[in-house]
Design goal:
Structural class: alpha+beta
Keywords: Hydrolase, Membrane, Protease, Transmembrane, Transmembrane helix
CATH class of one domain: Alpha Beta
Protein name: Regulator of protease activity HflC (Stomatin/prohibitin superfamily)
Number of strands: 11
Membrane topology: Single-pass membrane protein
Number of helices: 8
Helix content: 40-55%
GO cellular component, one term: side of membrane
Shape: rod-shaped
CATH superfamily of one domain: Band 7 domain
Order of helices and strands: HEEEEEEEEHHHHEHHHEE
Largest sheet: 4 strands, antiparallel
Strand content: 15-25%
Main location: membrane
Radius of gyration: 68 Å
Length: 343
């Protein structure tokens, strides 16, 4: 009886083990490769799956999502024989589980080695400056080569990125010196251009100022000339009017030669008052005028009329207001006969 119980327990345990081994739960976005008697049998999709225990073997579980692999720095030589260390990151995704399992032993190692070799080839065709400034081009060439090579392995390389491109320390120091020299050169060029523009603007400003100043001076001279011309015109017009008035007064007053000579004698002290007046110009008619004046005063002294006619001894000289024809001087002022001079 005990033996039968033991046999039943063993049988139930075997059934439980077989049941457990027969059920295979595959997570989402993952697939299992099933081998039967050492050969590929089928691929288990995500979800609930039944396998034959002790017959079917799960070779490998592969993640079908996009994977990111960061490779260690790879040394490369540029076209100008300079060494650089390049860090790369590869984004890939398994598209065929069978090819990724049976056509390559380790696809991650294969992608790493292929990426390193392709990177050396690409950087070897560029100089250092192109390597540092052409990351997009390097990424495209790497992705194209890796995608074409890994297509047989059931892998799709979606993207390749360069994390860093590090030259050696000596090269970095030389680059820093070169960049510093370039910055100093650009600063000097910018300063020289600024000074040049400042000088040009200053010269243009001075030119405009000089032009405006000259134009203002010309306009001022024109206005001043017009004002002087108008003043001279008015002055000449006034002098012409004064001469006309004097001429009219002379003709209306019937001025005699004696009176003109007398007025000239009155003006002689004013003419001789100046320090620079060394020479006097005496008109030729001055002698006749002086003779007339002498005769005039002799006639007055003798008590006769200025015209030579004698006056009565008891007759009083006529007052200036009694002369019907007064004598007029050069300025048009009327006078009577000259006063009688006593001996």
């Amino acid at each position: 009886m005990l033996t039968a119980v033991i046999i039943v327990v063993i049988f139930v345990a075997i059934l439980l083990v077989i049941g457990v081994r027969s059920v295979r739960i595959v997570p989402q976005a993952e697939q299992d490769v099933v081998e039967r008697f050492g050969r590929y049998h089928r691929t288990l999709k995500s979800g609930f799956n039944i396998v034959v225990p002790f017959v079917d073997n799960i070779r490998e579980r592969i993640d079908m999502r996009d994977q990111v692999v960061s490779f260690p720095p790879q040394a490369a030589i540029t076209q100008d024989n300079l060494s650089v260390n390049v860090d790369t990151v590869v984004y890939y995704r398994v598209t065929n589980v069978y090819d990724a399992t049976y056509k390559v032993a380790n696809f991650i190692t294969a992608v790493e080695q292929l990426s390193s070799a392709t990177l050396r080839n690409v950087i070897g065709g560029m100089d250092l400056e192109q390597t540092l400034t052409s990351r997009d081009q390097i990424n495209r060439e790497l992705r194209s080569v890796l995608d074409e090579a890994t297509a047989e392995w059931g892998i799709k390389v979606s993207r390749v990125e360069l994390k860093a491109i590090d030259p050696s320390e000596s090269i970095q120091e030389a680059m820093e010196k070169q960049m510093r020299a370039d910055r100093d050169k650009r600063a000097q060029i910018l300063q020289a251009e600024g000074e040049k523009q400042s000088a040009i603007l200053r010269a243009e400003g001075e030119k405009s100022s000089a032009v405006l100043r000259a134009r203002g001076s010309a306009e001022a001279e024109t206005v001043r000339a017009k004002a002087d011309a108008e003043a001279m015109t008015l002055r000449a017009r006034g002098e012409a009017d004064a001469i006309a008035m004097v001429f009219k007064a002379l003709h209306s007053g019937k001025v005699s030669q004696e009176l003109l000579a007398y007025q000239y004698l009155q003006k002689l002290p004013e003419i001789a008052r100046g320090d620079a007046n060394k020479v006097w110009i005496v008109p030729s008619e001055m002698g006749k005028a002086l003779e007339g004046i002498g005769g005039f005063f002799e006639a007055v002294r003798d008590g006769g009329a200025p015209d030579g006619r004698g006056a009565d001894p008891g007759e009083r000289p006529e007052a200036p207001g009694d002369d019907p024809e007064p004598v007029v001087d050069l300025e048009g002022r009327g006078y009577g006969r000259p006063p009688v001079l006593d001996d």
